[in-house]
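Lecture notes, part 5. Sequence design as translation. It can be helpful to think of inverse folding as translation between two languages: the language of shapes and the language of residues. The source text, in structure tokens, appears below.
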């Protein structure tokens, strides 16, 4: 089978190649820790994630997981209630599984999107649309654990909500292009599917704003370093979109809290 460059993503854009049952991608600096996590998930949980096959000088080879990955322009199933609810359940099972994992001595984690407060579970930290495999319009597997790190459940729920709700001004393209008219209602559905606790719901707005600011700093920093995928998307218009998104979340803080805490 001829190699196939897999689309999607910014950090590894153009560098992820499938050949038959395997995917070759850039080797994370903390691959030893991530591979231990992925092997644990396969051996001791029902959370599907790509098992590492081999390590080369500058690449890792992992299992290819069949299914659908949403790419722009996003197919309708990306916005479906079924997808949102099954994703909430998948993320919850992942977090629950990591509480049973004995983190190896000397484990190394990316700090790019890590929860500054730390926490009791391993957060994926990048459950964007392109990092979820769907089957029959339901979330089936998680991909790309490069940014994983210990954190709080609410942190990872907020990170995922940024992409999947999407939690942003409905007038911005990220929501308007997907015909998302009720982001706060979708957020409640996602939190319920996850089973987010009351305390975490009270913290949610503060946490998601912190996550947005962190994402903004990360993208700006990568663009400043000249990383191609990020220089292509970071301009004055992108800065304005971040500003508008953050301002909208702040303006809707009470409505978000009320929706999350309603009986």
């Amino acid at each position: 089978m001829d190699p196939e460059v897999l689309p999607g993503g910014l950090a590894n854009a153009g560098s992820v190649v499938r050949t038959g049952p395997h995917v070759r991608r850039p080797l994370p600096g903390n691959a030893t820790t991530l591979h231990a996590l992925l092997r644990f998930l396969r051996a001791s949980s029902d959370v599907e994630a790509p098992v590492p096959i081999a390590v080369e000088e500058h690449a890792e080879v992992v299992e290819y997981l069949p299914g659908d990955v949403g790419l722009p322009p996003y197919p309708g199933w990306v916005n479906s209630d079924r997808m949102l609810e099954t994703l909430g359940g998948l993320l919850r099972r992942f977090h629950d599984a990591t509480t049973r994992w004995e983190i190896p001595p000397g484990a190394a984690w990316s700090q790019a999107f890590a929860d500054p407060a730390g926490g009791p579970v391993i957060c994926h930290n990048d459950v964007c649309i392109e990092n979820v495999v769907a089957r029959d319009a339901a979330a089936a597997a998680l991909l790309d654990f490069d940014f994983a790190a210990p954190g709080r459940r609410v942190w990872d729920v907020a990170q995922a909500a940024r992409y999947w709700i999407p939690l942003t001004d409905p007038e911005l393209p990220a929501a308007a292009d997907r015909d998302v008219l009720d982001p706060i209602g979708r957020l409640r559905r996602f939190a319920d599917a996850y089973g987010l606790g009351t305390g975490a719901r009270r913290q949610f707005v503060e946490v998601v704003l912190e996550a947005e600011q962190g994402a903004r700093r990360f993208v700006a920093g990568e663009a400043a370093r000249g990383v191609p995928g990020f220089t292509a998307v970071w301009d004055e218009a992108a800065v304005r979109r971040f500003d508008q998104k953050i301002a909208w979340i702040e303006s809707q803080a009470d409505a978000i809290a009320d929706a999350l805490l309603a009986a």
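The translated text above is only one of many valid answers, since several sequences can fold into similar shapes. The chain has two domains: 4-63, 76-261.
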